[in-house]
Amino acid sequence: MGLYANAKSLKSKTLDELKALKDHGLGIVYIGLETGDDVTLKKINKGATANDMIQMGRKAGAAGIKLSITVLLGIAGKRRSKIHAQETGRVLSAIDPEYVGALSLMLILGTPLYQDYVSGEFTLLESAEMLEELKTMIAATDLSRGLFYANHASNYLPIKARLPKEKEATIKLIDKALAGKVALKPEYMRAL
């Protein structure tokens, strides 16, 4: 069995309680990290810091529970894109989950972030900038045995890589896409 969790819910459980959940069949926990950048975490009202996420991810891992962590490409906008990518890689490395899933931000009408976009406060990344962010994030991520996916329908370039083994090959694939040698998913095929 698997469940979705956040830093607050994991903090509410002791390590022994998490181990008991593992013993009763909990095999995987899904956590939406979104970003390792504290400024962006605060802006999106995540309710946790990067350090909180690291500590709670490690706690679940120490209980023997597999982790699947979701990150969100583009969530920091253009101004903090590189910081977001580097800090997210740092946090993922510190947690060392079994799975990472990268999704690309798609703005939804009526949300606060959409309003920031309309007002010009938030600048959405273009496809090449999303790929640069993904490349920087993967370069900054050191997993001991994890799978890094970017194959969600929202992504421009489907990726499935075992890190660290396929890290360099994945970065080369992204470079080829940036150079126009690998086709990107057309906008009309991207979806939530």
For the biggest β-sheet, the strand order reads: 1-2-3-4-5-6
Distance linking N and C termini: 25 Å
Mean pLDDT: 96
Alpha-carbon Rg, integer: 17 Å
Spans where pLDDT lies below 50 across 5 or more residues: none
**What would you say the CATH architecture is?**
2-Layer Sandwich
- Overall structural domain count: 1
What is the global morphology?
A: globular
The CATH topology: Transcription Regulator spoIIAA
The run of helices and strands is EHHEHHEHEHHEEH
Strand content range: 15-25%
Helix-strand category: alpha/beta
- Quick one: CATH class? Alpha Beta
Largest sheet: 6 strands, mixed
Helix content: 40-55%
Number of helices: 8
Annotation, overall tally of beta strands: 6
Which features does this protein show?
single chain; 192 residues; alpha/beta; Transcription Regulator spoIIAA; 6-stranded mixed sheet; 8 helices
Describe this structure in words.
- The protein has 192 residues and is α/β, with parallel strands linked by helices.
- Helix content is 43%, strand content 17%.
- The chain has 8 helices and 6 strands.
- It has helices spanning 7-11, 15-23, 38-43, 50-62, 81-95, 112-119, 127-140, 167-178, and strands at 2-5, 28-34, 66-73, 99-104, 146-149, 160-163.
- A 6-stranded mixed sheet has the order 1-2-3-4-5-6.
- Helix 5 packs parallel to helix 7 and helix 7 (127-140) runs antiparallel to helix 8.
Task: Give the arrangement of secondary structure elements.
Layout: E1 2-5, H1 7-11, H2 15-23, E2 28-34, H3 38-43, H4 50-62, E3 66-73, H5 81-95, E4 99-104, H6 112-119, H7 127-140, E5 146-149, E6 160-163, H8 167-178
Parallel strand pairs: 1-2, 2-3, 3-4, 4-5
Antiparallel strand pairs: 5-6
